[in-house]
UniProtKB/TrEMBL annotation:
Name used for this protein in its record: chitinase
Lineage: superkingdom: Bacteria
Organism of origin: Kribbella speibonae
Single GO MF annotation: hydrolase activity
Span of the signal peptide: 1-20
Length: 420
């Protein structure tokens, strides 16, 4: 239910953390810290696997989800970007171990860098994440029958866990991934336009997860099986048998962001902990609503890992009323890569142009300069989210995505040290 009284709106100057190297703190907790590393991070953003070492993220993570592997029309797994995944050579300066890739070596690309990362951090677990917004078109076909499910899972385990990459010797990438992360967006609900969806996706997703669990258990060693789950309770009910799913999942990550964004004309929060007073939109979207929905449907607290954003959504042409909150706009704000969305590290560099506002009751912040509005998840909000996760005794935090942080890892540091 929405709060009737208005939360405190406080303008605040941001205290900028030092740019010195930040040592990893042991938070003395069993909470998971899961981060998505995308295979496109190394292009325009120039955020390499080695940057996870340089900014302290690798030492604070319990798991990396490498995004994304795709599923083709026949239900087989494939690399979405072979060059980035296993072909690109890295220089000594770019690499995790400080050594340049040599001509003719078997494995290059991000996978070789992840292999080096695991050698440096032996407790770090890495899963291949399958699907995502642009890679979920054929999940429904892959999950349709017992035979299609079995063939799909075999294909994915062969490619990613057994490491049988096209054009390379058998097992060239074996042992890099210790699990599968399923990012089907979304069973029985349209995600990216053109995705195949069926009413029976709900039951078929449960069966697909169970097939993964069965085939993973036949492999030597321990393997994680996780899933990315939506925030919207209506989508949960259409596409997910929550209690049954969690029997086979190691844990699941919840969508803790994109509650609102520039696909709407009205400015709003994108990752509030609770529904803010005065929000003219319905239904309410907030982390509280999402977490309560999963708990009510039988998800164990210890297996719920709440998502947090390392990026912002923005609008421009915003009416200068209520510090820009809940106001009409003329469209998405200009940004570095995708209009209306900006990585934290890029937006922080523009911070002098904005005033920071916080709703301490609902738990979110935003920036406004009189015409342009950005949602804002900074170290203060990461601390708030970590404290919420700890207070509700959830399984941990998940980051989308690691390339959004600063060179000294200030967001993951604030998140990590406040998980209890």
């Amino acid at each position: 239910m929405r709060r009737r009284s208005m939360g405190l709106l406080m303008a605040a100057a941001l205290v900028v953390p030092t740019t010195a190297a930040v040592p990893a703190e042991a938070h003395g907790s069993t909470k998971r810290v899961v981060g998505y590393y995308t295979n496109w991070s190394g292009y325009g953003r120039n955020f390499l696997v080695s940057d996870l070492v340089k900014n302290g993220s690798a030492a604070r993570l319990t798991q990396i989800n490498y995004a994304f592997g795709f599923v083709d029309a026949q239900g087989n797994c494939l690399s979405s970007d072979p060059w980035a995944d296993y072909q690109r050579p890295f220089t000594a300066e770019q690499s995790v171990n400080g050594k340049a890739d040599e001509p003719g070596q078997v494995l290059n690309g991000n996978l070789n860098q992840l292999k080096q990362l695991k050698q440096k951090y032996p407790k770090l677990r890495i899963s291949i994440s399958l699907g995502g917004w642009t890679g979920s078109a054929h999940f429904s076909d892959a999950a349709l029958t017992p035979a299609s499910r079995a063939a799909h899972v075999k294909s994915c385990l062969d490619l990613w866990l057994k490491g049988n990459l096209p054009g390379l010797p058998a097992g060239a990438a074996k042992g890099i991934f210790t699990g599968i992360d399923l990012d089907w967006e979304w069973p029985a609900s349209e995600g990216n336009p053109g995705n195949v969806i069926r009413p029976e996706d709900k039951q078929n997703f449960t069966a697909l997860v169970h097939e993964y669990r069965k085939q993973l258990d036949r492999l030597p060693g321990r393997h994680d099986l996780t899933a990315f789950l939506p925030a919207n309770p209506a989508m949960i009910d259409r596409g997910f048998e929550v209690r049954q799913l969690f029997k086979d999942l190691t844990f699941a990550t919840t969508q803790g962001y994109d509650y609102h964004g520039p696909w709407e004309t009205l400015t709003n929060q994108q990752s509030a902990i609770d529904g803010p007073a005065g929000d003219p939109t319905t239904p309410e979207f907030s982390s509280q609503v999402t977490i309560d929905a999963y708990l009510a449907r039988g998800a164990p607290r210890s297996k719920l890992v709440m998502g947090v954003p390392f990026y912002s959504h923005g609008w421009t042409g915003v009416t200068d009323v209520n510090h820009g909150l809940f106001q009409p706009s003329t469209g998405p704000a200009p940004s570095t890569f995708d209009a209306g969305t900006e990585d934290y590290r890029y937006l922080k560099a523009q911070l002098a142009n904005y005033t920071v506002y916080r709703d301490n009751r609902a738990g979110f912040a935003w920036l406004f300069d009189g015409t342009t509005f950005w949602t804002w998840d900074d170290p203060v909000e990461m601390k708030r989210k970590a404290q919420y996760i700890s207070h509700r005794d959830l399984g941990g935090a998940m980051i989308w995505s690691l390339d959004g942080d600063t060179g000294n890892g200030e967001l993951i540091s604030a998140l990590h040290r406040n998980l209890r």
